[in-house]
Design a protein that fits this description.
- By secondary structure, the chain is an all-beta fold.
- The strands form 16 sheets. The protein has a six-stranded mixed sheet with strand order 1-2-6-9-10-4, with no helix packed on it. Strands 30, 32, 33, 36, 37 and 38 form a six-stranded mixed sheet that branches. A five-stranded mixed sheet has the order 12-19-18-14-15, with no helix packed on it.
- It is globular, with a radius of gyration of 31 Å.
- The protein starts with a strand and ends in a 5-residue tail after the last strand.
């Protein structure tokens, strides 16, 4: 409550902000009881998209007001309007019309009149509803007052060359002109919110504060306020160098320099001599250090100077060059799944050289020297074909032959859990249980059905629990709930979340991405057994997060967009941000993750990054550009990338090299087995041979199959928009079982956020406010 107001009738009211509690009627046993009413049940608002937010007032009155007064809560249910109360009127104001596309919007304002400031008890006839029609029309920006919100860049170092600056704001027109310190500059119209202007080298030749404005004066539109542009002289600072120590006599390597104040002209010097430098960001540079630089032992200073800023050297940080012992300290990954494809193993240690060789159970493997602290080895599918362990060490046959200590790699049993969208971190929609009920014994009825508070997301299952995010049925955010895999009963939760929410599972933790469009994403880890929060991390720089996270081997990966695109890697033990990588227009793609790659797909773009460092391993670009994206599928050493402008069709690539294999068609993410892939195409399920792309069989069902299919042992499960659920023999395509679920079971029509899932021996089918489980295996 923000304060009291008084009606002429003597009614005391307080304005409560939207989101306060409500509900319940009655007002005690006194008679007569208060009755509230509004002067009109509907209003209309309109404004051009270049105008200001429109507003109107609706009178609110009440009879038989008690001496203690009443309280009023008013709020718009859909977010197109905001509300207030001035003591006798509900004031309804549309949101900024520039924030909405041109069109007509409907909202409902709820007005609750209550005996108490928590609105636990409402008067008779409360709540009241006022219907709002809000129309945003197209205004003419050329005759409007322009406004400025941002300059990019907003500062440069004195002496920089001329450059193109992006000016952001509103009410820009093709006739708009950008002024630099009152002087017109060559301006390019991009959109009503974006201009580009050419800033001359003479404009930034000296240290100063310049003022930038936009004018529509030529079309009688006026001139905006000004934003400052700083022309500065920055002395860079070096905070750290990586590596900080290397072995004497090693090979050339890339030195990472972290600090502040770096610009695009920044130059790294080694022991006073300039080295080839790559600008990464204002806080990061990479420099090429030669083998000759580390031929002798000692401590060598590293400095940075901005050439355009007067070439003033930063402070110095030293790199120690010494005879370092050969040691092995870490493996990445340290766990792989038996029966998986070959991959690249990373080994971290000290004293590595070009003559170092990785030993696998005492036998050499093809080795790539990355640096004196990192090696990579090619591991074949045969090496990890069976469950067990492998002993890894490093042998160096240089001038002083040596062998490091050994570390153990675990080769584990393939999981029967559902831990990510499309069952696993690879999103291949396939799981193998120890046994599955035979084709004549498929369940004719569900094991259990859980009734939820809204639309369920993708069901995860691990450790005897089922974890599901739920989108509120009234549009008020989401929640996370844990169910018993045996009974469907609630074990813990629901936990309220803001915005939309998607989940993944790793190592006893449920990790949830929650976000509202326009704000940073939030990644939170919960203890899978108790629901207790473990850590929370904000994902800054982007403001659209619309695909599920994926976790594997202690790291969770998330894609976000808004300003370009960013792939985030977060330590799922601590919540610490490990690395980020830039991608083009990244959104709607849940990362597919293996032991040695993180794969994401966006229109015309496919990327593979190193899981531990974020280094780009390969990228395929078809030369076009677009927004959105879709979740890819990783199976049998092949990545199926839905890199078309819309939908899930695309191209398949060799997962290790990025070599193009073939194109494919899919309406939804496929399920991929060892020899055959299962694709929904045109409302039918098709089995397509992985090696030849030849169709093996087609199952039509009711002709409306949709959503991602899943493969459990030798059975394919698929659903239709009419609510039919089918089990099909994966080899022959023969239908083995079907049932009517009574409604759509696969989520939205384009962005796959839900669908069939299988884990812990159960098949999970989402519905309208329900999650239904069928038992497929009593010994998964």
């Amino acid at each position: 409550m923000t304060g009291f107001r008084t009606w002429a009738a003597g009614l005391f009211v307080g304005l409560l902000m939207a989101g306060c509690g409500g509900g319940g009627g009655g007002g005690g046993s006194s008679t007569p009881q208060p009755v509230a009413s509004v002067g009109q049940s509907s209003v209309t608002l309109s404004a051009p998209d270049t105008g200001t937010a429109p507003s109107t007032a609706v009178s609110l009155s009440a009879t038989d007001v008690p001496q203690a007064g009443l309280y009023v809560l008013s709020y718009g249910s859909k977010g197109y309007v905001t509300t207030g109360f001035d003591g006798s009127n509900v004031v309804i104001t549309g949101v900024n019309p520039a924030s909405l596309p041109v069109g007509t919007y409907q909202d409902d304002v709820k007005v609750e009149v209550c005996y108490d400031d928590h609105c636990a008890r409402q008067v008779r006839n409360s709540p009241l509803t006022i219907a709002v029609i809000y129309t945003v029309t197209k205004g003419d920006p050329a005759t409007a007052m322009p406004s400025l919100t941002a300059l990019a860049p907003s500062s440069v170092v004195a002496g920089s060359p001329g450059f193109a600056m992006t000016v952001s704001g509103s009410n820009f027109a093709p006739t708009s002109t950008v002024y630099w310190n009152g002087l017109a500059r060559a301006t390019t119209y991009v959109s009503p919110s974006t201009l580009q202007v050419q800033v001359n080298a003479s404009d930034v030749g000296s240290i100063q504060t310049a003022w930038v404005a936009v004018s529509n004066a030529s079309t009688s539109g006026g001139t905006s306020g000004s934003l400052q542009f700083q022309v500065t002289a920055v002395v860079p600072t070096v905070a750290s160098v990586l590596p900080a120590s290397v072995a004497r006599g090693g090979s050339a390597f890339m030195l990472t320099v972290n600090g502040t104040g770096f610009d695009t002209s920044a130059q790294v010097s080694w022991n006073g001599s300039a080295r080839a430098t790559t600008y990464v960001s204002p806080t990061k540079l990479v420099a090429q250090i030669t083998a000759g630089d580390i031929a002798g032992a000692g401590r060598f200073p590293v400095t940075v100077a901005n050439v355009y800023g007067g070439a003033v050297n930063s402070n110095a940080m030293s790199v120690a060059v010494s005879d370092m012992p050969l040691s092995l300290v870490a493996l990445a990954p340290s766990f792989v799944t038996a029966g998986g494809p070959g991959y690249v193993q990373t080994l971290v240690g000290t004293g590595f050289s070009a003559s170092s060789t990785v030993q696998w159970n005492g036998a050499p493997r093809s080795t790539t020297f990355v640096s004196t602290t990192q090696l990579q080895a090619a591991v074949s599918a045969a090496d990890i074909a069976a469950i067990g362990t492998a002993s890894l060490s490093v042998a160096d046959g240089g001038a002083s032959p040596a062998t490091s200590g050994a570390l153990t790699l675990t080769i584990g049993k393939p999981s029967g859990d559902a831990v990510a969208y499309q069952i696993n971190p690879q999103h291949n929609g396939a799981v193998t249980f120890a046994n599955v009920v035979g084709p004549t014994a498929f369940p004719l009825s569900s094991t259990w059905t859980a009734h939820l508070d809204g639309t369920p997301g993708y069901a995860l299952a691990a450790g005897g629990r089922v974890f599901v995010t739920v989108a509120s049925s009234n549009g008020g955010g989401s929640e996370l709930v844990a169910l018993s895999a045996a009974t469907g009963a609630v074990v813990w939760g629901p936990i309220a979340l803001s915005g939309s929410a998607f989940a993944t599972y790793d190592g006893g933790k449920v990790i949830v991405l929650s976000a509202s469009i326009g704000s940073a994403g939030t990644l939170t880890a919960y203890d899978a057994g108790t629901g207790s929060p473990l850590w929370t991390t904000a994902l800054a720089t982007q403001y659209m997060f619309q695909a599920a996270p994926t976790a594997l081997n202690g790291i969770v990966y998330v894609g976000g967009s808004g300003s370009g695109g960013t792939l985030y890697a977060v330590d799922d033990h601590t919540g610490a941000l490990l690395w980020t990588a830039g991608v083009m227009n990244g959104d709607w793609s849940s990362p597919s993750v293996s032991a040695d790659g993180v794969y994401v797909s966006y229109p015309c773009q496919t990327y593979d990054f190193s899981p531990t460092t974020g280094a780009l391993l390969w990228n395929n670009s078809t030369g076009c550009e677009g927004g959105g994206g879709a979740t890819g599928t990783l199976a049998n050493g092949v990545y199926y990338s839905p890199n078309t402008p819309a939908g899930f069709s695309g191209m398949s690539f060799d997962a290790e090299s990025g070599a193009l294999r073939a194109s494919y068609a899919a309406d939804w993410p496929p399920a991929i087995g060892a020899t055959t892939g299962y694709f929904i195409q045109g409302g039918a399920l098709k089995a397509i041979a992985n090696a030849t792309s030849v169709i093996q069989w087609t199952f039509a069902g009711d002709g409306a199959l949709a959503g991602p299919p899943i493969l459990v042992n030798n059975y394919v499960f698929a659903a239709s928009t009419a609510g039919r659920l089918y089990a099909v023999d994966a080899t022959s395509g023969a239908m083995l079982w079907q049932t009517d679920m009574g409604g759509n079971v696969f989520g939205s029509s384009y962005l796959a956020v839900s669908g069939l899932s299988a884990g812990n021996g159960l098949l999970f089918v989402p519905g309208t406010g329900t999650l239904t489980a069928y038992t497929l295996s009593n010994n998964p």
